[in-house]
Amino acid sequence: MKIKESVKFAITLGILPWIPAFILYKHSMFKTGAGVIVICLVLSLICFIFEKFSLNFKNLLTKIGSFLGRYLAIIVLTIGYIVAVLPTGLIMKLVKRDRLRLKKPQIHTYWKKYENNNTDYEYQF
Question: Do the beta carbons of residue 17 and residue 37 sit within 8 Å?
Answer without folding.
Answer: yes
